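Hi again,

Forgot to attach this to my earlier email, sorry! This is the prediction with calcium ion bound. I've pasted everything inline since the attachment limit keeps bouncing my files.
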Amino acid sequence: MFKWFDQNGDGWITQDDIEKMVKLFTALADNADHKNKSAMSKGFMNWWNLLLEARENKASEKIGNQEFIRIMDAVVIAPKNFEIAVGYIVDGLLGALDRDGNGSLSQGEYVGMYNALGIPPTTSAEAFRRLDRDSNGEISRAEFHQALFEYYLSADPNAPGNWLLGPMDVLK
Ligand SMILES: [Ca+2]
Ligand SMILES: [Ca+2]
Ligand SMILES: [Ca+2]
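C-alpha cells for the complex follow:
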C-alpha cells in the first residue's frame, strides 16, 4: 500500500503523491459528479493530515515506509479516523461507480473500478461473487464497507474483504 501511495516512487509519501492519488480516484467519477469527487478528495486529505500530525520528524513534510506502517496501525485504523479518511473515500468511490444511483454496485458497475484504475479485470467476477455476501447480485454499501474494514483490519487471510487486496496488489 505504501508503494501505491508513493506515486512517484521516491520512497517517501508527500502531498504531491496524495494529490496524484486524488486525481486517480476522482477520475472514476463523472465530470459533473462534484459530490463524490469531493468526498474522495476530503478522505485523502484527512488521511494525509492524520499522517502529518502523527509523524515524528516535524521538520519535514514527508512520510517513510516504516512510519507509514506505524501510523496506519496506531492512528488511521482507529474507528473515528478510519471513517473520515478511508470511509469518505469508500463512500465517494461507491457513489461514483453507482451509475444508476440505486445505492449499490452491480457487477458491471463494479468492473468499472477495475477498468478505470487500470487493473486487469481477470479476478473481478470472483471478487464480486465473494464481496456480494448475501448473493443478491449487488454489492451494497454495507458489503463494500465491510470488505474495506476486513482488507485493513482482519487477520483472517480467507476473509472475503481480502479480495479487494487482489486487485490492489496488481498496482504495487
Ligand atoms: Ca513520493
Ligand atoms: Ca448501482
Ligand atoms: Ca449483496
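The radius of gyration is 16 Å. Residues 34-54 form the longest helix (21 residues).

That should be everything now.

G.
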